[in-house]
Amino acid sequence: MNVTLRGFMKKELIQTLRDPRMRIVMFAVPMLQLIVFGLALSNEVKNIRLVGQFAPSDVVGQRLVRNALASTWFIPGQEAGGAFESVRSGNAHVVLVPPPGGLTRSVARGDGRLQVLIDAGNAVRARSIEAYLQRIVAETMAQEAAVAPKPAVDFSLRVLFNPSMETSLYLVPGVMVMILTLLTIIVTSMAIAREREMGTLEMLISAPIRKWELLVGKTLPYVIIAMIDVPLILLAGWLLFGVPVAGSLIELFLASFVFICAAVAVGTVISTFARNQQQAMMGGMIFMMPAILLSGIMYPIESMPQAISWLSQLDPLRHFVTLLRNILLKGGDPLVVAKHLGALLGLAAVAIAVSARRFRNTLN
Amino acid sequence: MKGFVLTRAWSIARKEVRHVRRDPFTLTMALGLPVVMIVFFGYAIDFNVKNVRIAVVDQDRTPSSRALQNVFSSSDYFQTVPADGRDGIDLLDNENTKAALYIPPGFQTDLTRKGAASVQVVLDGADNQTTGVIASYLGGLQRAANDRLAVAVPVPVRLDTRFLFNSELNSRWFIVPGLSVVVIGILSILLTALTVAREWENGSMELLLSTPVRPLEIVVGKLFPYSVLGLFSLAFVYVAARLVFGVPFRGSHLLFAGTGLVFLTTVLAQGLLISVITRQQLLAMQLANISGMMPNLLLSGFIFPIESMPAFFQTLTMGLAPRWFMYIVRGVFLKGAGLFEMGVPIIALCAINVAIVALAVKKFKTDLEP
After folding, report:
1. Could you tell me the end-to-end alpha-carbon distance of chain B, in angstroms, rounded to an integer?
2. N or C end of chain A, less CB within 10 A?
């Protein structure tokens, strides 16, 4: 590496990391975020407030409520002015309304019908609540032994790679992608925009360094910083949440490196459009929000409209999160790694080419 | 020079309006971006998982096993993919399918002779966002399979479910209002965090501090124009939600606008606070992201239900403005909740607002009087 470049990169690293607050933001905060989100977030619907309007003499109904509460999905809710009002006021998420005469008698008659009111303000939760209830009703009826305990066709369910459905296992790769994206894109684009805003970019142009040195010297330090974060986050994920590295570490670091290069290049492209840091930041947001939401970290890509699903192929985050999940949890299927790493490489190449071109043009 | 003088706050506000007007880029972003994002994401995001590719390993090859496959493929949820001799788990491994159905040999014989047969469904746990939803579909499919294949077994208790407030379980009705809180919350924090940090960097804040303006006047003067801007973008978002996605609005508009204003001033003041603490745009931006973006997106109850968090984090989210506004927005849109039912969230939101504004004023004050 030549001397100019080395000196330039040193300046950039010092400039970024000299503020102790910045060091905290770059290294400590990503780990903290990972820990908080890994501990706090869960997709599983729990603590559902249940109200069963059964008379004390309604044996079947009371048993149903007991079973529901014992399942750990439900907690007792409060009844406040009728079934509908209880749900509307948020005192209950679900209310069971027995048929006239009680559930016990209606089951004995052989036409058991139970009305269920579910708060569908959250459509996903509503669906889970219904599924839970189906299961609990079936169990309760089996206990009553009124009918055949086993359904004719039984689905036995097995969840691979994450048998206990731990949210942190699949979320940690997602949060890792988000943290790296935030760090690289925003910091790179704003750092370059700052030089422009302060007028120091002009000075750098007139300095005896070549343009490619300027570009590489300006961007490579951020690649290095982000690459330091990768093992830190992985270590935190492994120690705290037991996220395994089932596949090869080399593949993992290679994928991270390519992704980080792509992200830094995108940050550079954004900075060439921005006149000041605020515009750079806004540009970063315009890229990041869709990139995060369409990556499959939070929403299933399968259920997106076809056009959007195609569009998400251009999202480097999508490929990176697929790679991370596959390598960390499934051990890295060679075909998948090749395919998504290839896509990521292609995107990185395009981003770097565009950034080099845009960077040169804005300097002239 | 004591107390609060409205004219001085007004001058600050006018100066700020000029700043914004001079920068059409920021203005367009602040007003247009939320609407564009909500329309785009509202269209793109759908929790109703459809067409999940499921690999079918049929080792029975009988009319019954084909009928079972039919139950899967005729539902909207699944798209069956014959495994053709490959192992179903391999297909999961290389991301071809999200699930696999194993029908063991002797399925039909078991069904006719013993009256009960078992099949195995394997799900990809590396993506439990989807897995959770698929698992909840399977209950319904199992009933459908029983109806189709087995000798009719009377079901002793039939659930007669009514989904209140969103009877079709249209997931957009719940995503779009939530998304507007997230988008507006994030953008507002960034807006003030950066504009004021820039004044610190330029040194124009020093100039401002040497004038007779009081800290409270500065804070109010700065918050006012951005709050108006935020209210406009909230209105645009509201129109988009109603017209484009047909989300019903069953509550009070006044309540929505009022709480919206409280929420906006809270997040804008949070941005101001960040800018005073950091006084540097790059750092301000990072702090705004940490304290704004991630909590707004992940801890507000937008996607991940607050009830499912551990008790400690449930308590923690009580200090976050987006959590309460999210609750209010979903309440007024879908449930038609009134002032009375929303009492707790409104009080909490106001308390957070007062705390953050007071903190911002105090920080400005200590900077004024060294």
Report:
1. 17
2. C
Say if the Cβ atoms of A322 and B47 lie within 8 Å.
no
Q: Is residue A152 part of a domain?
A: no
Residues 240 through 279 of chain A touching chain B, CB cutoff 8 Å: 276-279
Check if the beta carbon of residue A99 is closer than 8 Å to that of residue A55. no
pLDDT digits (tens, 9 = 90+) for B294-337: 788 888 888 788 888 888 888 989 999 999 999 999 889 988 87
Q: Looking at the structure, tell me whether residues A348 and A232 fall in a common domain.
A: yes
pLDDT tens-digit map of B151-167:
545 455 677 778 888 88
Rounded Cα gap, residues B114 and B107, in angstroms:
10
Cβ neighbours for B359, distance < 8 A, ≥ 6 positions apart: B273
Does residue A28 sit in the same domain as residue A57?
no
Q: Give me the residues of B, 182-201, that contact A with CB < 8 A.
A: 183, 186-187, 190, 194-195, 198
A232: Cα within 13 Å, side-chain hemisphere: 17
CB atoms within 10 A of CB B359: 16
Whole-prediction pTM = 0.82
B92 contacts on A by Cβ (under 8 Å): 160
What is the widest separation between alpha-carbon atoms in chain B? Answer: 95
Residue range(s) defining the domain that contains residue B15: 11-45+169-368
How many Cα atoms occupy the beta-carbon half-sphere of B111 within 13 Å? 25
8 Å CB contact of B33 and A285: yes
Residues A207 and A295 in one domain: yes
Query: Between A360 and A269, where is the model more confident?
Result: A269
How do residues A292-340 score in pLDDT, each as one tens digit?
A: 888 888 777 777 788 888 889 999 999 999 899 889 888 878 888 999 9
Task: Please tell me the distance in Å from B325's CA to the nearest CA on chain A.
Answer: 15
CB of A18 within 8 Å of any CB in chain B?
A: no
Residue B156 inside a domain? The answer is no
Q: Is the dihedral of CA A176, A178, A183, A189 positive or negative?
A: positive
B185 with B321, same domain: the answer is yes
